[in-house]
Amino acid sequence: MEQSFIMIKPDGVQRGLVGEIISRFEKKGFSLRGLKLMSVDRAFAENHYSDLAGKPFFNGLIEYIISGPVVAMIWEGKNVVATGRKIIGATKPVDSDVGTIRGDFAIDVGRNIIHGSDSVESARKEIALWFPEGPVN
Ligand code: ATP
Ligand code: MG
């Protein structure tokens, strides 16, 4: 079954949105297969966002991700990668529809609460990075 890597970023944890976010994925019908609170270091964050190295916002993005604990999750279900991106909403909160997580809770692209894998291939790589121990069976 398809899986996606979903991460609640430090602002989402600090603002008390963990339960709300988990609830939205649960109510949609997806299954939680991995969950942990983690603090990551610079090298780990740079590895996760390696595709964005060289972007002008890259250093700020890394500082943001290492600024506090994050909640790393594996969610499973039919089309969870694409549907998870819809639940999350567009990258820039000004473009995120109301009813999406970013559309409802964020106003700043640099503090947009949550990450979701952008393809099945990215999900595979990200799950291997964040959950080297593998999913819960
Ligand atoms: P994510 O990978 O975090 O789920 P995304 O796939 O919607 O987000 P990406 O293009 O992968 O968007 O960008 C990764 C993250 O980098 C964004 O979520 C955002 O936090 C940050 N980011 C992207 N564009 C900008 C920008 N123009 N200014 C500041 N931060 C940005
Ligand atoms: Mg992305």
Automatic annotation (TrEMBL):
| Keywords, in A-Z order | ATP-binding, Kinase, Nucleotide-binding, Transferase
Q: Does the keyword Transferase apply?
A: yes
Keyword Transferase carried by entry:
yes
Question: Which SUPFAM superfamilies does this one have?
Answer: Nucleoside diphosphate kinase, NDK
Instruction: Please list the cofactors this protein needs.
Output: Mg(2+)
Q: What is its EC number?
A: 2.7.4.6
- Tell me which residues make up the Nucleoside diphosphate kinase-like domain: 1-137
So which residues are the signal peptide here? Answer: none
**According to the UniProt record, what class of enzyme is this?**
transferase
Q: Name one Pfam family in it.
A: NDK
**Catalytic residues as annotated in Swiss-Prot or TrEMBL:** H115 (pros-phosphohistidine intermediate)
Q: Which positions, given as ranges, span the membrane?
A: none
For this protein, the record's PROSITE patterns field holds:
NDPK, NDPK_LIKE
**What HAMAP family does the annotation carry?**
NDP_kinase
Q: Which family does it belong to?
A: Belongs to the NDK family.
Put simply, this protein is called: Nucleoside diphosphate kinase
